[in-house]
Specification:
Helix 1 packs parallel to helix 3. Helices cover about 30% and strands about 25% of the residues. The protein is built from 6 helices and 11 strands. The strands form 3 sheets. It has a 6-stranded mixed β-sheet with strand order 6-5-2-3-4-7. A 3-stranded antiparallel β-sheet has the order 10-9-11, with helices on both faces. It has a two-stranded antiparallel sheet with strand order 1-8. It has 2 domains: about 170 residues, 2-Layer Sandwich (Nucleotidyltransferase, domain 5); about 45 residues, no CATH class. A hairpin with a 2-residue loop joins strand 9 and strand 10. With about 260 residues, it is of the alpha+beta class.
């Protein structure tokens, strides 16, 4: 674990979506060098998981004064957001917001906003850091809790106050983790690529009390699209068990 620095701005973000598309929510934590912490969250009636991941990062940056002099460390479990803002967006802009295949970039409105926000902080170091979701990190877990609650339109009290009195431990940060392998997004906003160490990627869906394993994203999407379902990609049996636990289920729950 890395030690937290109180001289930098610390941000955690996460997004959630019940169905893809479907009702969504986003959540973020912003901890400032002056010792204050602010939680934020929001609901969108019809959206996608990628848009909620982007919205969380965007709202966190919007909340900051552009004249800040502190570096920013932003943690997200979204490979799409990190690769998009650090790599893909430059090619998209050169091509007039077109993908390499000549198609319109998905979520272009949010990407444009995010680029403008990032430009406000060119005078400081803005570091996009990957944190593995549902891996026990307090900041990421709390953002997930906020995002899920808002996606379900549940009332979730949001903390604003002194860091010393915050119920989430932000003093220890996750070690810098490499981004999971994935194929370059074409701008569709749909999951692509992946593959576990044994060459198998699965997709779990949870709908109507039943957990189902799908061999492809297309198969999973057919089940969850437009429905109040949960779903997630797994790269190993261990990740499948972790997903079950993150959904509040027993890790040995039968999977059809």
């Amino acid at each position: 674990m890395e030690a937290a620095s109180n001289s930098s701005i610390l941000i955690f973000t996460d997004g959630a979506c019940s169905g893809n598309p479907g009702p969504g929510g986003w959540g973020c934590i912003v901890a400032l060098p002056d010792g204050t912490v602010r939680e934020m969250g929001g609901h969108v009636p019809q959206t996608t998981n990628n848009r909620m991941e982007m919205a969380a990062a965007l709202r966190a940056l919007i909340s900051l004064d552009g004249s800040i002099s502190s570096d920013i460390n932003l943690y997200t479990d979204s490979t799409y957001v990190i690769k998009g803002i650090n790599e893909w967006v430059y090619g998209w802009m050169r091509r007039g917001w077109k993908t390499a295949e000549g198609k319109e970039v998905a979520n272009q409105d949010l990407w444009r906003e995010l680029v403008r926000e990032v430009a406000r902080f060119k005078h400081v170091s803005l570091n996009w850091k990957y944190v593995r979701g549902h891996d026990g990190n307090p900041g990421n877990e709390r953002c997930d809790q906020i995002a899920v609650a808002f996606s379900l339109k549940k009332k979730e009290p949001l903390y604003v106050g002194d860091r010393a009195g915050y119920f989430v431990d932000l003093n220890q940060l996750p070690d810098q983790a490499p981004l999971p392998e994935m194929k370059k997004q074409s701008g569709s906003g749909k999951p692509q690529g992946g593959g576990s160490s044994n060459g198998t990627t699965t997709y779990l869906s949870y709908l109507g009390g039943v957990v189902t394993r799908h061999a492809t994203w297309a198969g999973c999407e057919k089940v969850v699209k437009g429905r109040p379902a949960k779903f997630k990609k797994a790269k190993s049996p261990q990740e499948e068990r972790e997903i079950l636990v993150s959904w509040g289920l027993d890790p040995n729950t039968p999977i059809e």
